[in-house]
Amino acid sequence: MRLKYQNGGRPGDPKKKKMPDWYPAFLHALSGVESSYGKNMMNPTTTATGLYQQMYDEIKDMPEMKGISRSQFAKDLKLQGKIQDMRMRGEIPEVPGLLRNVRDIKSKNLTPDEVAAMSHFIGRDGLMQQLKSGYDIPGKNASFDEYLSRYRKARATYKPPEEKMQPLEVSPPQQVEPALQNAFKILREAPKVSPDLQNAIDILRRG
Q: pLDDT tens digits for the chain (207 residues)?
């Protein structure tokens, strides 16, 4: 379960539109840890909702969420993906972007996508505190090491989509003029020999 964001830290950079190469694997693993790949879409004790367990009370007033109830959001995978993209880029009000966290928070023990995952879980400040001196995760949540282990196991199951082979372009059959078609027909047919000529050929073969 993702914890409600702890205030503090700089906002993300909305100008960075391109996602890193590891983003698809990150989303796959994150959905595995947060919602068991969509099996647990609404947390019963918090407003965490959807594949990535976005805090509904944190995003409900955004223009993109206008008129969208929590139950509707839980069913709208496309909108969940859009909101998660915005979270990555730092476009959610008062929430530092995960890409900014990746650029700012350095750790010898965490890969960039793991920094994004752990700051998604305990927030920017929480992760920095954890790396510095340890962070006491509130509530009945997984420990830092447990969450990280689950994330890594889920990431290991990611399989990139197979590239589809482009069909070969086949030229349409060309039209052949009637005279040429007739010539082909003559060539395909066995040559006709007159009876007298065939008799002479037979005599020569016997001689």
A: 555 444 333 344 444 468 999 999 999 999 999 999 999 999 999 999 999 999 999 999 999 999 999 999 999 999 999 999 999 999 999 899 999 999 999 999 999 999 999 999 999 999 999 999 887 777 778 899 999 999 999 999 999 988 766 666 666 666 767 777 776 676 666 566 677 767 766 777 776
Q: Tell me, what amino acid is at 139?
A: G
Contact indicator for 13, 90 with CB cutoff of 8 Å: yes
Q: 140 vs 40, 136, 151, 174, CA distance in Å?
A: 16, 11, 18, 73
In angstroms, rounded to a whole number, what is the distance separating the alpha carbons of residues 31 and 117?
10
Distance CA 125, CA 1 (A): 17
Angle between helices 23-35 and 144-156 (to 10 degrees): 120
Structure tokens at 52: 């990535």
Residue the block writes with tokens 């009370």: 57
pTM of the model: 0.71
